[in-house]
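Sample entry (700 residues):
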Amino acid sequence: MNQDSVSSSTLGAAPVRKDRGPIASQACDVCRQRKQRCDENSPKCGLCTRLKIECNYREPVPTKKDKTMVEILDRVKNIEVMLEQFPQLATGIAEFKPSQTPLTHSSLNNPLSFKAEGHTFATTFSHPNKTITGRMHTSTIYTHHTASHKILLWPAIQQLLLQAAPSSNVDGKFLERGAVFMVRTQTSRPPLSLDIDLQERPFVGMQSLASRVVGGSRTTFPGLVPEAMHQLAVSYFDTFNFLYPFMDRQTFLSDTLVKEMSEGFDGDMESVIALLIFALGEVALEGSCGSPVDIYQARPSGIRGGSGSSKPPGASFFNEAMKKIGSVLTECNLENVQMFCLTALYYQSCYRHLEFWRSMVSASSACDILITSDTFDWKSPKGDLIKRAYWHCATMETTLHLDIDLPLTSMMNLETHIEMPLFPTPFCEDDLKGDQESNWQAHSSSVLALRRICVQMQNGISEMSRMDADSSCSKAYTFLTAAGVRQLAFQLTQWRGLLPSALQWAEDEPASFPCVQTPEREIGNIDPSFTSPMSQQSSRPVLFSTDIDEEPVRYPYAYDIQVATLRTRYYYAKYMVYRPFVYKVLHSPELVTPEDAQNVAECLQSCLMWPILLSPPSRCKRLIPYLSTWSQIFLSILIIVHLSKGNMMLKDICDNMCGERYHAEIDETVRLMLDWIRDLKDAEDPIALWCWSMLRGIYW
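Predicted structure, serialized as tokens:
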């Protein structure tokens, strides 16, 4: 552990503060009638148990936050119902509607040629007047892959790489399976250094009965004083747990941490989880405020803390946790799931992508066994915490599946049976304050809703492309039509409209602060505009900056990363849903319609100025969610942008349909994406190294 980093941190070594007790959410009818405090025990409260009478609880009244989340989930369910009807709507279709005329280069200059198609699936398809026999050329068949690195399998891009970067020698089999891609890119990576650990000594003092029953000698670490432990724990819960809320702050600080402070460490679950949280706490401190690992042309690296790729921040705590983890590796409880999730997050922070994935697979497997082998009161705080752990695993799995094509586990079969978490009370004061200032609960719920929409959109596109491949029609893109995809993409617009007001932003202003702030957040506002005259002005102050050379602004509660992640996943979803039409332009230009061209323009416009590329988020990359996916996503965009300068139809679409903002910001966006990959490449991130090798010969 870097003791200096802890002692000098701006957080300070605050003493342990007493957490606020549980907030009473309901009382039984008897206690209400008697107007006395109810202990809320289930199935009977203490008073009713003593009086031996029936105890009835009323259903709690939903809060405004609960109602907002319910509205989001209801809209998602409506989207799912509509998408489930898609195969039936498309049955029997064999060719384009006659109105879908191919696009010529000259028609791009005619604004009247871009009349939008209908807003329902029914208007997208029509029964053919004539069936044409024969098969299309195989190069025109679009096979839908969500993983961005698989665009290197497109014939046009393979030709580009052969001409511009022949040394890259892309192996198709290497790219076809995500697991092979992940393993092959990580083979030359040296392991984490094992010579970094904590000096320990035997614990001397009184142990609790539970500790004595477990047996074994407990140890302490002289360099790890209680103030440092508390500071590291607070650092974790004020950053990582707002990004991935599967741990309970109150339980950890009041129970687990107190036990480790007073009784030392052992090979039990509490000790392992505490050490992992300390490791991530140091990552949060050093990863945002520590020294950059490198300086490139006077620009500090966005990777901070540690000394080399094999000695990241928190390594001493992590190594101690790995020494003890064997004794609790196969337990079947919530803590086991949390343990694997914490391990995965640490591997992610030091760009150990293979280990991150394997740890998440273990977490998902443990979560699957936990849920299917027992029954829970899902409305209780513990039940909601299990739901939070499940949806954390599900979100990670889905992201890795969509972005890198890694296989899903059997845990995903439970998705329709597990409700989304509603984050019920009780909360400790720090979580309550963090939510009031950063809206972390709303961010988390909105990410979950966006994830489900993305899955449904990609399933819809996959179904359309599959029907095209299986069709006997000679024309490509009989089913994968512009209007059909735009209808899928419209669900993203609906999602944005359903966001809580404190999360809203203007579509063309991804770097701005949220548009509206609720009155109850007047104290300690993160956004200064809400307490200044600027709030009355039409222009919004910026939360993110393109200046990545200067020291970034520090926002509490990882607020900038929460906002950047939500917005970037939204723009990435738009890019993904429209990307098939870039393939169509490159490989079947004679079939491109004005509506197709508009979709290509939407795809290109959605790539501009993603917030995670900007400062402050890009200046603390160790804290960025889904770190393993972004480099190859940026690679795909950079290749498409390069092709747009040489392919005549793509160039015409850019020149005539992408608008002023695209031309003003695309060069800066390219610069930021290249800098992201270079930064991670210099830090020996294996996926970034591979992406860099693909870009050589194209951009320099």
